[in-house]
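To close the chapter, one final illustration. This time we ask the reader to focus less on the individual chains and more on the assembly as a whole: which components sit near each other, and how the overall shape emerges from the parts.
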Amino acid sequence: MDYNLLWFGIVGVLFAGYAVLDGFDLGVGALILWVKDDGERRVLYNAIGPVWDGNEVWLVTGGGALFAAFPSVYATVFSGFYLGFMLLLFALIFRAVAIEFRSKEPWPWWRRWWDRGFFGGSTTAAFLIGVAMGNIAWGIPLDARGEFAGTFLGLLRPYALLMGVTTVSLFTMHGSIYLHMKTEGPLQARLRRWINPLIIAFIVCYAVVTLATLLYVPHITDVLRAQPVLFVFAILLVLAIANIPREIHHGRDGRAFLSSCATMLLLMALFALGMFPHMVFSNPEPWHSLTAYNSSSTPKTLHIMTVIAAIGVPIVLSYTASVYYIFRGKVKVTKDSY
Amino acid sequence: MDVLMLARLQFAFTIAFHYIFPPLSIGLGTILVLMEGMWLKTRDPRYHNMARFWTKMFGLIFGLGVATGIVMEFEFGTNWATYSRFVGDIFGSALAAEGIFAFFLESGFLAILLFGWDKVGPKLHFFATCMVALGAHFSAVWIIVANSWQQTPAGSHLEINGGRVPLSHQLQPAELGHARMVIDDFWGVVFNPSSLDRLNHTLVAAWSAGAFLVISVGAFYLLRKRHREFALSSLKFGLVLAFFSSLLSLTTGHSSAIGVAQNQPAKLAAMEGRWETGPDAPLHPFGWVDLKNKRTFGPVIPGGLSLLVAGQRAHVITGLNDVPPDLRPPVQATFQLFHVMVGVGFALIALSFWGALLWWRGVLAETDRSATRWFLRLGVFSVLLPQIANQAGWFTAEIGRQPWIVWGYLRTSDGLSAVVKANQVVASLLGFGLIYLLLFVLFIFLLNRKIQHGPESLEESHELPESWLKQSRA
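The assembled structure is written out below.
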């Protein structure tokens, strides 16, 4: 078996799982300031209350899997993106404690500040994740040993920033659709009015990114030109996005959310297809690129990790699904809530 | 300051701050299992009330553990990239296993523990509580495996440019980018010579952290004559766990130290300030290391160290004089931190015995007796003791490992990220300093507010969830 391909896939699935799951609760963070009433804000917090920290575990486990399977990628990316990554960590810490602390005191100023922290942390995290992906696709300068040879400012190229904005818009759209499923009454009616503009905003961003990718990042679209059958993913993506307003219109909130999840998974699949077998493009000097084959652990470790994943992942999926099932339905704020 | 010191400082600061919370989660999680188990067994609403109160405290502690824990998963890559490439074949698997087996388990069932009181029946809720506690213990397993492998590498070998090199080979600077550790045997890595001893010692010390938090709050309420019944009952739960965990800390600590003597003689010599190699090595209850004259001052128990390590005074202990100067850990820090840990450990045993004695005589809540009052006053502050011992113990283990980051293979100074500059680390260190200071102040503030607010009164807590009442009547 080609373990390198398998682990490229598993790391991809973990980060895609993170995007789909934490994507909606980062999106809820981006929406928090647009809901004014304190009771309604609490509904937003408690819509993600039981699940946000499990969602974040996907990032932690994805990081661990990357470390185990592709240590050089882990080392190059996180040391190369040092300052950006520190900012991401600060943002994630801030939003985690904002959720935790916010409703523990009744004072309006206290809640207002944590709401801002939750908004700032969530939006910054979404933006930085997008910037990182943009840089990985565009390519970063790597030396012969695979070490980052660029500068922090060099990472702020327009294409990466554009990916950052697109990610914020994607997560916000995803979050609004999730909230629409979890809320009721006037709050839900208001959210419903936001969904279409948010979808349009995302489509505009995505169209611009696609155009920029075709013009400036041709190496990531090579695979589509070589194997046109893969355009099926792009077509499915369009269908998934188009299906969201349709499901909302018919009042099928759950299916609208699943459609949004499918959108994100297809985006990640296209990204992974465009990257493979590269994990970090080197630009200039593409021969220094890190790939699933030149930066992996030994076959023995990949084999061990495969056994661990084969035991662990089904268990994880079963109780993650159980937790989502137990907390299904509309949010009710009780004395145990955030 | 150079980037090496800054990066070490940052790692030490972020891990030490993070490590306030996981032991509390492990210990308090265990107590929650006991409390909720007692409720299921007796259906006495007082146990239910206690489980509810301590679950709220648990939620706050766990939240901070999560927020500060994400940093740790990535800091190897950000600041220690060369180390990450060097050990990725081994160390990464342990971190990934921790995510899959521990973090998902904890966070999934935490949702039910915190928010599921009305959503699931009492048995399923109890099951969730058990799974959260189990997940907390599992996370300790994998991170201890990873750290113990750094202390006593096993199940692996060194490769340079893909070729195996003999054990005696010392890594040269030019080989750094081309060398890595490669796995031979997964179970050899997991059960490396120090992992079981260190895991046991870490877990029982974590139970102490939770136990003394509960003792502290219970003692505080008793002294203030608030929630008397709740406080006494909590105090008893705390005392039971404290009694066992403080005694077990002694036995597990003892076998850990024997392991250090066998596998890391330089560390043991530093822990005890032992310079001369020879038999009849003495034990210092406390002391001061005179680095210039290579002597250690203070009272001694003659032959004590040899006796403890091997059961006989004739046992030869390697002294620092026989360790090349560049392979010695910082002696004074290792010695003092180790002795702080041991001293506090004995204080915890004494406190647990005192509490047990008062309980046995039935005067634990008799606050008009001065002995009880004194015990409770000490009890209020006792929450700090396991924290001090835990931190001192880990600093002993990690400073005592120097100059190695992987014992015998890679030096800490060779593990840094090549591309990260000192000013970048200064910036991130300042950021962590400010944010963690804020978090610490808020954590103490909110913890205090919860304690001041106290448990719900029993009448209120009689409002059990509808589904639970049906089942308790049945």
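Chain B touches chain A through 69 residues (CB under 8 Å). Residues 215 and 235 of chain B are 5 Å apart (CA to CA). With these observations in hand, you are ready for the problems at the end of the chapter.
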